Amino acid sequence: MEKRIGSFSQLFPPKSTWTAENVPDQTGKVVIITGGNSGIGKETARVLLSNGAKIYIATRSKEKSEAVIEELKRETGKESIFFLQLDLSDLVSVKTAAEEFISRESELHTLYNNGGVYAVIDKLTSQGFDMQFGTNVLGHFYFTKLLHPLLTVTAKNSPQGSVRVVNVSSIGHYVVPPDGIQWSTLSPGDDYLAVGKKIGALKLYGQSKLGNILFSNEFARQYGGEGIVSISVHPGNINTDLARNASAFTKILGRIITYPVSYGAINSLYAGTSPAASELNGKYVTAWARVTLPHQRALDTDLGKKLWEWCEEQVKDV
Predict the structure, then answer these.
(1) Average per-residue pLDDT for the chain
(2) Which are the catalytic amino acids?
(3) Half-sphere CA count of 262, side-chain side, radius 13 A
(4) pLDDT at 238
(5) Of 187, 191, 207, whose CA–CA distance to 199 is shortest?
(6) pLDDT level of residue 188 (50, 70, 90 thresholds)
(7) Name one GO molecular function term (predicted).
(8) What are phi and psi of 12, to 5 degrees?
(9) Whose CA is closest to 264, among 246, 281, 242?
(10) Following CA atoms 292, 295, 297, 300 in sequence, which dihedral angle do they give, to the nearest 10 degrees?
């Protein structure tokens, strides 16, 4: 039984015993990485491409993504990396992206739900949801739901535990409203904005990261029997452009206490490729490549089921 590693050790972890050098050969693997054109997603793509995987980076910006694709091709000498148009803040775009991928591929071995936004408090998604929860949780829920049949088919024809969904969360899931999820902030429309501003951007972000773990655990509970392994990860304190909307003070502090982006991919890569991670369905991985318990709220199966049902309701008519 895993123990809960203290917050200090998660923020300032000991030297990793598992690194990108330990990633096994990925030849024949088909992988999607949301948000794969920058930060942790880009580094994850670089390592997997280097090891032979076929990569789709699923993002909004075609121009930026194609530039990154050419960069990674030059760096790795590999050609199997492609762009998939995906805007997680628009459920119609999510549906289109999933349909496009399914039309192109007959297998999906690993889905990295990596993309996300941070500290956005005054914007709504295309369907009117809080930008952070709508993008980080609902968008990924719907994308995974649509790709689930393909994951299931792939799992039937793959070694046990090798087909995986990796959900990038954060230690920020500790910083949430009192009940974990403030449901009034999830109602679509401008009315949420006043409630959201009272709660604050940080707690809204934490709420979305809690949602990532709850979703990951519920997916594991529902579909683990199909051979799909669902794991959530805290990537560590990493210097990425995710905090581009944060305050100046937060940005300065972040530069002092963060690790290089190469470290940020360790946990995702471990969860997605390590043979040992085949046994981690429904588990949470923290820096670096250590299994731990998340906050107690993230282990609330009733809350996880409620969130799942809420997500199902929001996407049923897309």
Answers:
(1) 93
(2) 169, 205, 209
(3) 5
(4) 83
(5) 207
(6) confident
(7) oxidoreductase activity
(8) -130, 75
(9) 242
(10) 10
Domains and CATH numbers, the chain: 7-313 (3.40.50.720)
b/e sequence 4-22, b meaning 16+ C-beta within 10 Å: ebeeeebbebeebebbbee
DSSP the chain: ------HHHHHSPPPPSS-GGGPPP-TT-EEEEETTTSHHHHHHHHHHHHTT-EEEEEES-HHHHHHHHHHHHHHH----EEEEE--TT-HHHHHHHHHHHHHH-S---EEEE-----S--S-B-TTS-BHHHIIIIIIHHHHHHHHHHHHHHHHHTS-TT-EEEEEE--GGGGS--TTSS-GGGGSSSTHHHHHHHHH-HHHHHHHHHHHHHHHHHHHHHHHGGGTEEEEEE---SB--GGGGGS-HHHHHHHHHH-B-HHHHTHHHHHHHH-GGGGG-TT-EEETTTEEE---GGGG-HHHHHHHHHHHHHHHTT-
Instruction: Report yes or no: 32 and 108 within 8 Å, Cβ to Cβ.
Output: yes
What per-residue confidence (pLDDT) applies to 36?
96
Neighbours of 24 (CB within 10 A): 11
224: its two tokens:
């683990």
Q: What is the maximum alpha-carbon separation in the chain? A: 51
Q: How far is CA 209 from its chain centroid?
A: 9
Q: In this structure, what token pair is assigned to residue 70?
A: 């050419």
Q: Other CB atoms closer than 10 Å to residue 156's CB: what's the count? A: 10
pLDDT of 290-304, one tens digit each? Answer: 999 999 999 999 999
